[in-house]
Amino acid sequence: MVEILGVTFCELTEDEVFAACTDYIASGAPHVIITAGPEFVMRLQREPSLFELTRRADLVTPDGIGIVLAAKWRGRPLPERVTGVELALRLLAAAAGHQWRVYLLGASETSLQGALEALRVRYPELLIQGRNGYFKAAEEADVVAAIQAFRPDLLLVGLGQPRQDVFIDRYRDQLAVPLAMGVGGTIDIISGTVERAPVWAQRMKVEWLYRLVREPKRLRRQLVLPQFAFAAWREGRALRRK
Ligand code: UDP
């Protein structure tokens, strides 16, 4: 485990996290994974409730090159970044073979239906249902009831961070899903509503830059990256001096 600005990240490769997911689902007991990037870590500095919620997760993975670099600076390298989208895509590919029941919660109705359709075509045996992510607080009980009625083994929630993680944490016991995980914009990517950054950008670890150029409204959110780099560097320096 590597702690960065109060968040304890697992030191696992994507393969190892995937294996842990399989074990969680096999166990049948509720488990939660959070994929945390620099933005989430910085937000948590201001919101103590997010800090508590992150501590309750079974695994927190480094979602973003910023976290991997920060770990490296403090001499505790993490093997690699493990993103929500990659994990979700792998779990979906494995779900039919394991007969896992999958519930997708999030994105617009068009995007959700597109993703369900694409997945049903790709994995005809897949047992999958979903609901869009535009519901009011008053409708939350209905959303929870619908998920409970389907009894999923895997719940992928794409409401954006931190809302998706707050939702999962709040209903963890009630839903009792063996594996629940926030997946950001994954439903949009599966449906094709939003394109993933090209492979070159993924390989060069500059997906964030690609997304920034494509969606300039992300700039405000990305401004937190230098703040994260500075805070993580300062924390690393203090640790080395001890
Ligand atoms: N979303 C949603 N309900 C909302 C707000 C957002 O379902 O009230 C969805 C949105 O349609 C998108 C996802 O949440 O599919 C957020 O994607 P983004 O790429 O912003 O995720 P992040 O960067 O937080 O991982």
Description:
By secondary structure, this protein is of the alpha/beta class. The chain has one domain. Helices cover 55% and strands 14% of the residues. The strands form two sheets. A six-stranded parallel β-sheet has the order 4-3-8-7-5-6, with helices on both faces. Strands 1-2 form a two-stranded antiparallel ribbon. 38% of the residues are buried. The model has no long low-confidence stretch (mean pLDDT 94).
Quick rundown:
This protein is of the alpha/beta class and 242 residues long.
Hetero groups in this structure are: uridine-5'-diphosphate
- Mean pLDDT level: 94
Tell me the overall shape: globular
Distance between the termini: 19 Å
The tally of structural domains comes to: 1
Radius of gyration: 18 Å
Strand content: 5-15%
Low-pLDDT runs: none
Order of helices and strands: EEHEHHEHHEHEHEHHEHHHHH
H/I helix tally: 14
Count of beta strands: 8
Features:
242 residues, alpha/beta, two-stranded antiparallel sheet, 14 helices, binds uridine-5'-diphosphate
Walk me through the topology.
Elements: E1 2-4, E2 7-9, H1 14-27, E3 32-36, H2 38-46, H3 48-56, E4 59-62, H4 65-73, H5 84-98, E5 101-106, H6 109-122, E6 127-131, H7 140-150, E7 154-158, H8 163-170, H9 172-175, E8 179-182, H10 186-191, H11 199-203, H12 207-214, H13 219-222, H14 224-241
Parallel strand pairs: 3-4, 3-8, 5-6, 5-7, 7-8
Antiparallel strand pairs: 1-2
